[in-house]
Design brief:
The complex is a heterotrimer of chains A (about 290), B (about 325) and C (about 325). With about 290 residues, chain A is mostly helical. Chain A contains 11 helices and no strands. Chain A has one domain: MetI-like (MetI-like fold, Orthogonal Bundle), CATH 1.10.3720. In chain A, α2 runs antiparallel to α3, α8 packs antiparallel against α11 and α9 packs antiparallel against α11. The two termini of chain A are about 35 Å apart. Chain B has 14 helices and 12 strands. In chain B, α5 packs across α7 and α7 runs parallel beside α8. The termini of chain B are far apart. Helix content of chain C is about 80%, strand content about 0%. In chain C, α1 packs antiparallel against α12, α5 packs antiparallel against α6 and α6 packs across α8. Classes of the chains: A mainly alpha (about 290), B alpha/beta (about 325), C mainly alpha (about 325). Chains in contact: A-B, A-C, B-C. At the A-B interface, loops of A face α8 of B.
Amino acid sequence: MSTEILDPVAEAEESAPSRRRLSRIGVIGWVSIAIIALALLLAIFGPILRPFDPNLSDLSFANVGPFGSHLLGFDGQGRDVLSRIMEGARTTVLGAGFVALIAVAIGTTLAIATAWFGGKFDASVSAGLDVLFAFPGILLAVVAAAVFGPSLLSAGLALAIAYSPYVARVLRGAALKERAMTYIAALEVQGFGAWRLCVRHLLPNISSLIVAQGTILFGFAMVDLAAISFLGLGVQSPQADWGVMVSEGKTSLLQGYPIVSLTAVLCIVAVVAAVSFLGERLDASSKDVLR
Amino acid sequence: MSSLLEVRDLTVQLKMDAGPREVITGTSLDIGEGEAMGLVGESGSGKSMTAKAIARLLPDGATVTGSVTFDGTDVLALSGDALLKHRAQVAVVFQDPRAHINPVRRISDFMTESLRILDDVPKAEAVRKAAAALDEVGIDDPGKRLKQFPHELSGGMLQRVMIATALLSEPRLLLADECTTALDVTTQAEVMAILDDLRRDRGLSMLFITHDLELAGAVCDRTCVMYAGQIVETSAASRLHEDPLHPYSAALVQARPDISSTAERLVAIPGRPVSAFEAPSGCRFAPRCPHSLDSCRSTDQVLTDLDGGVVRCGRATDLRGNLLDGAHV
Amino acid sequence: MLRFIARRGAMLVATLLVASFAIYGALYLAPGSPIAALTGGRTVPPEVMAQLEARYHLNEPFLTRYWIWLTSALHGDLGESIPLHEQVSTLIAQRIGVTISLVLLTSVIIIVVGVGLGIVGALGRGTVDTGVLFASTVSAALPAFAAAVLLQFVFGVMLGWFPVLGTGDGFVDGLRHLTLPALALAATSVALVTRVTRTAVREELGREHVQTAISRGLPWSGVVQRHVLRNAAIPITTVVGITIASLIALAAIVETAFGLNGLGAYLVQAAQNKDFAVVQGISLVLVFAFVITNVVIDIAYALLDPRVTLGSRAQ
């Protein structure tokens, strides 16, 4: 009977202005960026710039509070806390970065390969990933520590493997959508190879999602790596690391001298909060773009 | 015919991110006992908002001035139980039944909900009534349908469920908000016929919102045409679509395919429809009107009586009778 | 429904089979022979060696050993802890109660506080909502070990309200000992559940079918209960389930931090001591619990939402 008279223009009540998100990240966004920049600088230059030897222990200074150039005082073994925080940034921050990088690399490869080849390959890889989903990251890291001995490397690899199915699952959906685009089919007909199409077209088109996933994983990795080091299965004491410091400072904390543990906790929480804030923003805007 | 509903000088502003936005400006209309009133306009004209104001369903933060009187009661002043009771008396049939029926509850639950909760009807009896109501709107095997979930029914069937449900609570006024727009053409005709029949049987008043003037003409006694939050014309439904007085009504008639005569091509209305808050001063339709003069843009137009209806156009008397032929001049 | 459960059950068995194989295989590949652990590195006479090898099936091929391990595991025999000379299943049985209590108490906190705050935030706008958002943002940034340390310091050392270490005796004392660990374990999860609940309830509030219910003159409390909360329960149940499943592994951190004698803490110790039988046994139990929880979530999801064809969880 009736046809639309005109292009339907949204009713006034529905036409709230929609804004692109990342363009305005607000004060919290800038603070987050500053925190992350600082953490990265510490991770790179901390071990060079630290004022004292992070492993120099002088028991006569054990649990002595801040004075002079020792801005954060000493830990239970009389080591300079500020120096240990600066030294520890490297394993904590870069370690998490490598975990995120490896997980994203594995996940992206699997996602694009399954989306591209589909069929039996997709089914069997997906089934394999389903099994991997049954292993929480922490558990895998503990088993890895048992097998290969506790170290940052074994914990990091275990986490990266445990995270990769999550990345693969998210990216596979996006890659499948892109794979189904007619321009891909058109290029295929023109004889362009799978490799070229994947690298030149699929990959760039899901790149915003990849960056968002990487950022979110970086936050997770930092928490989990620190937790594993806290358990004594990652970075090994006396090597400085924020997770190790939380655990080392616990005895002092229970005796009423909390500065070591709390400083390390504060550093971890600040960076994780900043990363997850930015990660969520990136994720939301990348999904806007892909829609 | 006494008025069941009186809307006087209704102005509504919605709260939006960018500040308050006017969506209805000084709208007045009456619906008599048993009368069907059409409300026609493009998207954003404020017709849905008028219905929401009548049923007191406006979103939070909306500011309303003017008055809405339903059966002698000041609707805008209602609160608490009296407001709930008012809403129960004014049934709404929405445009998209699939979105407007809770997807995780069974049809029987949806249909009998207000009977059981508001009228304390025992469940078995409520279900029996629901089955009878489904039968009335022409749904086969009501017993089976009642046990199903909304996603198991077609859109047309769901809209019939919606109508049956609306009538179950014995309302006094029915607000049908584009209730057939989302359906395909044949289903639309069926649903429309059922709605019309049942309404007449019960002597129910109705505000029928649509953007289809001819459809309004077929089921309504009178029709209001709204543009940019204002009523621009009200007259008998049947003649509005044959002899419109306002250039906008005429444009709506011509923009619609006509089955009886073959038009060379449909005449689209130039420009895009605007909402009240973005409307220009003077005649709000002037920028899109083929008959507008400079004076139209400079003076606000008022509703004046003409030929038994009212029209908001300074040139209505000049243009009378010529609008449909002379439109593309 | 039955077919769905059967299919899910088959998938479950397959997953567990592969997982158990992976657990066993990984530890089999570990460098260092169990004999060295048994003997503490001393040289032993060949006949003792042979005896040990026979007892622990060390000479059998890998697949045979896996099969022996798996079939005995199905009978509740998870082997023997070589350093402790005790049955792994006995060791697990002694500790599983603490872990279960911890996870249950944490789940209660997550559901009551997380879902409760989320609903309050969504329904009560303005200051209440801002408060809820702020609280959830703060607790979201608190990983379990960080929360553990903070709670120990504030409520244990400074205020002295709760014990900071140990499991405690009896129900009341045990609960007191579990309070801080459960809060620490709940911190991040409560935040997640609060946010998901708040969003879900908000979304439902804006749905057309809720407007229909309002337009029919139903009282607000009825609209909220019958429509808003009923429908929001679908995503909320999913996130609560996933969160609880994740606690199973995270419990290890909190147990270690608070010196609780639970499975997780014991798993960490066993990993440090290379007590492979225990690592295998506990990992198997944890994976089993994790997978089962996920199946329960799937079933609950399908029961709550009539639109889903059984077996497909919405992302």
